[in-house]
Design a protein that fits this description.
With 133 residues, this protein is mainly alpha-helical. It is built from 4 helices and no strands.
């Protein structure tokens, strides 16, 4: 080995060690992001189940009525069923599958996706403002 290559060898090991450390740090960040997303998905699933139960309760009381309210009750029951199936989907799907499914829907329906996001943002903004957060 030449004198030059012997001097560069510790420097190369140091650089390789930095690369390994950066990989480990990125891996830890990715694990943290996945835990955060998983937690958010689980919380959303629980919220959807809770909302489904409340909507179902309203539907039951409307179905006991006569006339148009009974039809509204059936429609509200279908909404409750969709909320429940959405909660099931979220709790039974991996984050990677969710990401792929969302990307597919956004590609297929870009304008609808923007509209839905706008509506969700509006609802969240209203809810936050009402809470005084």
């Amino acid at each position: 080995m030449t004198e030059q290559s012997q001097m560069n060898q510790p420097e190369m090991k140091s650089t390789m060690g930095q690369g390994d450390e950066e990989c480990r740090a990125e891996s830890r960040r990715e694990e943290g992001r996945q835990r955060y997303v998983h937690s958010a998905v689980e919380q959303t699933s629980k919220l959807l189940r809770n909302l489904s139960q409340r909507v179902r309760s309203v539907a039951e009381s409307l179905r006991e009525e006569q006339g148009p309210q009974r039809r509204v009750g059936r429609t509200v029951e279908r909404v409750a069923n969709k909320l429940e199936s959405s909660a099931d989907y979220l709790s039974g799907t991996s984050t990677t599958e969710l990401r792929n499914d969302v990307a597919s829907v956004v590609k297929r329906y870009p304008l609808r996706s923007v509209g839905v996001l706008f509506g969700v943002g509006l609802l969240l903004g209203t809810a936050i403002r009402r809470r005084g957060v």
